[in-house]
Amino acid sequence: MKIRSGSLVQLEYTLLGEDGEVHESSAEGGPLEYLHGSGELPPAVEDALDGQETGFSAEVALPAGEAFGAYDPGGIVTVPRSEFPEEEALAVGMWVELDVEDADGAEQESLETRIVEVNADAVVLDANHPLAGQAVTFKVQVLSVAEE
After folding, report:
1. Is the pLDDT of residue 33 over 90?
2. Are residues 29 and 57 in the same domain?
3. Could you tell me if residue 1 is inside a domain?
4. Which residue in 64, 86, 129, 139 could disulfide with 14, CB within 3.0 to 4.6 Å?
5. What is the DSSP letter of 128?
6. How does pLDDT run across 53-78, given as a tens digit for each residue?
7. Is the pTM of this model over 0.85?
């Protein structure tokens, strides 16, 4: 069966940063299952898989910013240290959830952020994806293709 819009596809994958370092892999969490044509994967990866079958493998290089967007300096937020529990050990590189309200305070959403600095007064958080603004390479192998 060929991959087409609406196909349920199962992949083994590895995501490499521009430095060649492995940032994600299905070896860690098991195969990735996605609905082809739904926008779950970058368009260039879906294009490479379109019309292919079980067993197909590819390496798709994406230019800087295409996979995870451009790096946004506005994604850096400084939060008073007092907003975190005193006993909570905070370290650079940790991920923390930040609750954010819209401009009129009506809606609140959770945002995954990474700690980039900790001092006695404040914690500096980065809401950008770690690979934002970088070129990446997806290595994929199709394990199965089925109808939704």
Report:
1. yes
2. yes
3. no
4. 139
5. S
6. 999 999 999 999 899 999 999 999 99
7. no
